[in-house]
Amino acid sequence: MRSTIHPVSRPVVFRDRAAGFQLLTRSTLDAQHTVEWEDGTTYPVVDVDISSASHPFYTGTSRVVDTGGRVERFERRYGRTATVRP
Asked: Does the keyword rRNA-binding apply (predicted)?
C-alpha cells in the first residue's frame, strides 16, 4: 500500500445531542470541536442529527402508515379510474 494516498484514520466521538448518546470510534472525518471522553482523553467530536439511540426504527417508536386508507380517500376524491390519452 502506498502511504501517501490514504486518509488518516483517528479516534472520533460521534454525539447525538437529542438523545444524549455518544460513540467513540475510528473515522477519517475532521472535526473542529473536542470533547473529553470517559477515560479523560480529549477527542474530536462530530454532532449528528440521528443515531441508533434516537432513530424511530431502533427505538421502537415507529408508526405504521395506513396506506389502504390513503388510497381509498384518493379514490373517493378523484374517482376510481383516470382518463388515458393515447
From this structure: no
**Residue 67 and residue 4: Cα distance in Å, rounded?**
53
**26, β-bridge pairs:** 11
Residue, of 68 and 12, whose pLDDT is higher:
12
C-alpha grid cell, residue 78: 378523484
Contact 24, 41 (CB under 8 A): no
Closest CA to 32 of 20, 43, 17: 43
> pLDDT per residue over 44-86, tens digit each?
999 988 887 877 666 666 565 666 677 777 777 887 665 656 6
- pTM for the whole structure: 0.62
- CA dist 39 and 47 (Å) reads 20
H-type alpha helices, 43-82: 56-59, 67-78
